[in-house]
Structure formats: C-alpha cells, structure tokens
Design a protein that fits this description.
By secondary structure, the chain is mostly helical. Helices cover about 75% and strands about 0% of the residues.
Length: about 240
C-alpha cells in the first residue's frame, strides 16, 4: 500500500512535471522514459515481495502446518512467485496508464498504444519474470531473509557499477539496462538480437525456478502426498465401519 504508489509517482514524475521531447514519436519517448525509471523499483519490489511472501509462513509460525499438507512443493513456490509477479504487473500497468493519460492531457501527439505494448512485450514483462524468478531462487538458496537482502543488494550494486564502467554486455545484463532504444524494437538485426536475448533471459528465469524447486527446504513431497491420501482413505474406512 505504501511502496507501490511511491514507485508509481517516482516512475512517472518526469513525464508529468517536465517536458518530454519526442523526436520521432511522443509515445516512444514517454514509454522509454518510464521503462528506464522502472528498473530499480522492479528490482526492489520483486526482491521484497518474494522474500516476505516466503518468510511470512515462518514468522506466523504456520510453516509446519503448511508443509504438512499433501501438496507438492511447486504449488507452494509457484503461488508466491505468481503473486509477486502480479504485484509487479500491477506496477507496470499503473505506470503505463498514467503515462498514457499524461501524454493525452498534454496533447503531445497521438497516443500510440502499439508503441507502449511493444516496449512492454520486449523489455518490461520479460524483466519482471526474470527478477521474480531470481529473487525466488536467492531466497530458497540462502533461506535467511536478511542474508537474501544483503546478497541481492550486493549483486545489484556490483552489476550497476560494472554497467557504469562500460562493462554492460548482453550476457550479464539481463535487464538490457541502457542497451536499447525504441528504434531497436522495430525491425532488423537489432530486434533479432534483442529477441534472442529475451529468450535467453526467460530460459534463465525458468532454470532458476527449477533450481529453487530442487533446493527447496521442504522435503519428501511425494511421501507427504501419499501419507495425506492414505490418512484420508483410512478415515473414510473407519467412518464407514
């Protein structure tokens, strides 16, 4: 309730309060501006919500009860991953709608929805999936809440330092930070290179989710499912008798 509105305001303040220069398309200038401003907020929100969602059951002392249920591990993990992803999508949708409304109110050229959708499809949505999956993997791997925060901040600070020094190759720049312009998303070799990079990023995200599933602290999922069904069957038999 506090972080999302703050992130929305800070991500859209430039397009709201300052003049946006649209050399070729005002819509491209608006959506490129908010996409650049959203990077840090997407990172912070993904890490915070994943870590707190996984830690909440332990803080409320209901983790043993949840783990005792006859459900597979991927249900417990995917539900929290999906919830975090929906929060990030809500942020992206809110910022996009405000940018569209601002452009329309300022009468800065025609509002081209396809321009916004193109940036969201190629840049923002894959980044949201990757960040949520990475945060999930770090929390499952390190288990401790504060250790995960320290590791995430350290990795992020180190990468942004490298990017600032000019070391921003595609291999270790999964968010394409400062490596794209709207013109690159139209056609040609640049779009092909970005498409290949997006496939690489999504494949990495799914691999991290699979590793999180394998490293999850809750064990013997299959046996817990069997025990759950066995207990229910026994209860039905005793009730019938």
């Amino acid at each position: 309730m506090v972080i999302i509105p703050l992130a929305v305001v800070l991500s859209t303040k430039e397009v709201i309060f300052w003049r946006v220069r649209g050399d070729g398309s005002y819509s491209a200038a608006y959506v490129s501006n908010i996409a650049q401003n959203l990077v840090l907020f997407m990172i912070g929100i993904s890490i915070f919500y994943v870590v707190e969602a996984l830690q909440r059951d332990r803080d409320l002392n209901i983790e043993p009860l949840v783990w005792s249920q006859p459900i597979p591990n991927f249900v417990l993990l995917f539900s929290k991953f999906l919830a975090t992803l929906l929060v990030v999508f809500a942020l992206l949708a809110s910022v996009g709608l405000i940018a569209i409304m601002t452009q329309a109110l300022k009468r800065n050229g025609p509002v081209e929805l396809t321009v916004y959708l193109r940036v969201y499809f190629w840049i923002l949505i894959p980044n949201a999936i990757f960040l949520s999956a990475t945060a999930m993997f770090l929390k499952v791997l390190l288990r401790d809440r504060y250790l995960t925060y320290i590791a995430a901040i350290g990795i992020g600070a180190g990468l942004f330092y490298l990017y600032g020094q000019g070391h921003n190759r595609l291999l270790y720049n999964p968010l394409l930070f400062r490596l794209w312009k709207y013109e690159d998303l139209l056609s040609g070799s640049n779009l092909s290179q970005i498409a290949q990079h997006r496939v690489y990023v999504l494949a990495t995200a799914f691999a991290l989710l699979a590793l999180a599933h394998l490293l999850y602290q809750r064990r013997s999922t299959s046996s817990s499912v069997v025990r759950g069904f066995a207990s229910k069957a026994t209860l039905l038999i005793l009730t019938g008798l």
